[in-house]
Amino acid sequence: MSSVNLSRVESLFAELDYPISREEAAAEFSDVTVRFADGEGNLGEYVAACSSEEFHNSGELYTDIQNELPVEAVGEPGQSEGDA
After folding, report:
1. Three-class DSSP labels, the chain
2. Among the four residues 35, 47, 54, 62, which has the most C-beta atoms within 10 Å?
3. Residue 27 counted as domain residue
4. Residue 77 domain-assigned?
5. Rounded alpha-carbon distances, angstroms, from residue 82 to 12, 78, 79
6. What is the mean pLDDT of each run of 10 residues along the chain (84 residues)?
7. Which domain holds residue 28?
């Protein structure tokens, strides 16, 4: 099992051959732990949860996975975009 910082995930995605199915991409990262500022998770599981069935480039995969990451992975702890 390997581990990678969230900031390096996009470079991992760039190493894949595209187009690639969601299932194939998830399998590629099933043994990768992604580290956040406040926690960690399995990268393959986040990819498997993406809504797209297929990705045509690393940017599509990276954009899609942003919606699957936990709140701990984005922004500062306790921050809310909806609060004024």
Report:
1. CEEEEHHHHHHHHHCCCCCEEHHHHHHHCCCEEEEECCEEEEHHHHHHCCCCCEECCHHHHHHHHHCCCCHHHCCCCCCCCCCC
2. 47
3. yes
4. no
5. 32, 12, 9
6. 92 97 98 92 97 97 93 60 44
7. 2-69
